[in-house]
Write a structure and sequence with these properties.
Strand content: 5-15%
CATH class: Alpha Beta
Mean pLDDT: 93
Structural class: alpha/beta
Low-confidence stretches: none
Largest sheet: 5 strands, parallel
Radius of gyration: 18 Å
Number of strands: 8
Strand order of the largest sheet: 2-3-1-4-8
CATH topology: Rossmann fold
CATH architecture: 3-Layer(aba) Sandwich
Distance between the termini: 7 Å
Order of helices and strands: EHEHHHEHEHEEEHHEH
């Protein structure tokens, strides 16, 4: 199965990607993993990307696309893969189609984790991170026994800047403008399957696997 995972920040893509990849025995490939591997490996693409990252600039699409092309050509991705974090826009989606056509391995399906934006704000803004051990709690879904104190180590809990409601809403605005058009792009291509991403992690995983099973080995 050659699968792309899409959905807004906070939809649970990272969590679900792990379970889905395990179920279908395909490598989970994220742009973060690709970037880290190239930068730490000192590849030419990694050095190019690092210049932009060190300057606080976005890495240009052509560099990201080249990294993805190299990664998808590796032997472990020959029989399938799960892409998380790429493509991020319609231009990258077109580039991905070109890469996969070159490899003779067209995309099987795109899974959209559908969740209401206000639910995302609630999910992310309720998170609290321990300053000492890094464990993440949630004020509603997984609250510590004592407010503001980590059950695991007694460390102080705090709200990360990127979990603050105004920051989350900004990230969702960026997603709506840049990435959400992928949903229409893949729906028009007949590749899109959407599931409700609300509820317990296990329930969402069950929905995802049920929706994807018909595409296994397709």
């Amino acid at each position: 199965m050659r699968l792309v995972l899409v959905g807004p920040p906070g939809a649970g893509k990272g969590t679900q990607a792990v379970f889905i990849a395990e179920c279908f025995e395909i490598p989970k490939i994220s742009t973060g993993d690709i970037f880290r591997a190239n930068v730490s490996g000192g590849t030419e693409l990694g050095r190019m990307a690092k210049k932009y990252m060190d300057a606080g600039d976005l890495v240009p699409d052509e560099v990201t696309n080249a990294m993805v092309r190299d990664r998808l050509a590796q032997p472990d991705a020959k029989d399938g893969f799960l892409l998380d974090g790429f493509p991020r826009n319609v231009a990258q989606a077109g580039e991905l189609d070109g890469i996969l056509n070159e490899l003779g391995a067209p995309l099987s399906v795109v899974l959209d984790l559908d969740v209401d934006f206000e639910e995302v704000v609630k999910r992310l803004s309720g998170r609290r991170t321990c300053k000492k051990c890094g464990h993440v709690w949630h004020l509603e879904y997984d609250a510590p026994a004592v407010a503001g104190i980590c059950d695991k180590c007694g460390g102080e809990l705090y709200q990360r800047d990127d979990d603050k409601p105004e920051t989350v809403r900004h990230r969702l605005d960026v997603y709506a403008e840049q990435t959400a058009p992928l949903i229409g792009f893949y729906r028009d291509a007949g590749k899109l399957v959407a599931i409700d991403a609300l509820g317990a992690v296990e329930d969402v995983t069950e929905r995802a696997i049920a929706a994807l099973t018909p595409y296994a080995d397709a």
